[in-house]
Every structure is written in C-alpha cells, then in structure tokens.
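Why predict the complex rather than its parts? Because the way molecules touch one another can change local conformation, and only a joint prediction can capture that. The input here totals 276 residues.
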Amino acid sequence: MEFTKMHGLGNDFVVVYGEQALPGNASELAIELCNRFFGIGADGLVYILPSDNADFKMRIINSDGSEAEQCGNAIRCVAKYVYDNRLTDKTELTIETLGAGVQPVKLTTEGGKAALVTVDMGAPILNGLDVPTTIDANPVIGHTVSVDGRDFAFTAVSMGNPHCVIYVDDAANFDLATWGPKLEKHPLFPRKINVEFATVNSRGQVDMRVWERGAGPTLACGTGACATLVASVLNGKTDRKATISLAGGDLFIEWDETSNRIYMTGPAAAVYSGTV
Ligand SMILES: N[C@@H](CCC[C@H](N)C(=O)O)C(=O)O
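Output of the joint prediction:
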C-alpha cells in the first residue's frame, strides 16, 4: 500500500490515494498505521477517493479507528496532494466530506506546488441537539460541564464534527492530559467531542490547545480553530476574523457575516512517501 505522510501544522496523517472506496478494514488499518511505536505514526488515516459530486472525496479515520465527519487540517493536505501530484490543475476545487458536505477550496502556489490553502468550511451548527450535545438550546453558550469536582463553562459548535470550547487562563500550559479525555467522553456529548481550551489575547488573536476525539492531544485542529473563532464571536471576545495560534502554528479564520460561512486559511506539507 502506497502512502504519503502529510501534516497541517503538525496534525499529521497517513494519506492514501488510488482506492475506489474506503476499504472494509479501514478502522483496523488506521489503528495499526497510526501507531507511533509499531506503525508509521499519525493522528489519522486519510483516503482520497473519487466523488460523484465534487472533484475529490475525503474520508478520515482517527488514530483510534473511529471515523470523523470532517477534518480541517486533512482537507488542506488533500488539496495539496491532488495539486502537487498533478491529479488536478485547478487552484479552485471542491472536496466532498462525510459530514460537512462539499467544500470549496482555493490554493495559492509557489514553484508549481500548493502553498497556502483556504477552505470554505461552511456554516457552523449551533443547535445543541445537532452538535450533538444533550442540551436543547440554540446556541449552547456558557453551559457547565462538571468532571471530577471541577466545573467548566463551554460553548458547543459543530463544524460537521462536534466541538466544545472552554476558556482558560493559560491555554498553552493547560493540563490537557488530565481533563481532555474526561471531557471527550462526558455523557453530555453523545458522539463524544473534540475539546478546545482557549485563551483570548486580543480581539484578533487566540491561543488554543486541543484534545481531539479519537486522537488525543494533537498539535493543531482546523475544525477546532474554526469552532474557537465561532465561540469567541458568540461570547463577544473577538472580531469575526482572528488568528488562532496552536501548538503547531497559526491558522487564520474568518466567519463571514453575510454568508454565515467560515473560511480557514493555513499551510499543508508533505513529508515523505513510502510503501507499507
Ligand atoms: N484534526 C482535525 C479533526 C479530526 C477529526 C476529529 N478528531 C474528530 O473526531 O472529529 C482537524 O484539523 O479538524
């Protein structure tokens, strides 16, 4: 099986192209290949597949074998893969996702290769039951989730996949390993949840660290950065355009007031290709 190791700000993937459909053992393959000690090592396994209604289709399996509806960093990697490997010559293309529909993507290029990628991530879903949470409110802002005697106020946002954004004093040094897994699996979140811990430094910049559903702590999360911007606007903390600074680098997120759509801009990188 041929693969390319790619990443978006250190959120890394084993990317596979050339299959016609997701293989039946994709979940087992993801667990095996994403293992950092006995496999290639990655946060997820990504398939680039043919699509009936877009230029390409993406499927992403987390390192624990669960499938995610969408992945912001992976979709930028997919765009770079198809452009750099001459599978398309379009710098504006569409990519179908499992849970966030068909997403338009624009590339800037340098030396014939994709550099920055902007993805139209669509409109955020704010209805609590649709995120999903068990809370019947729209939007879910400042609700409390209690774990091990500690209360966290959170804002719930779906970008196709579910997120809960929590404001803390120092996101960069927050104890992700203790609180992340407990929040991810809390009964308030029926499909589990990606957890973002955020510190707002100005109306245009937010530090964020993430505990991802199905993958644990990752260096970056594109959908999580979008959810953080949306939560920060809803909570009156930032403008509609802000830099979200992650452990692996910065993403630039804009929530367009007229269209209600979120635009995410950031890099994607190919590290090496191999056969396993
Ligand atoms: N890293 C991703 C999100 C990947 C999926 C996530 N773990 C989930 O299960 O929803 C991103 O960049 O958006």
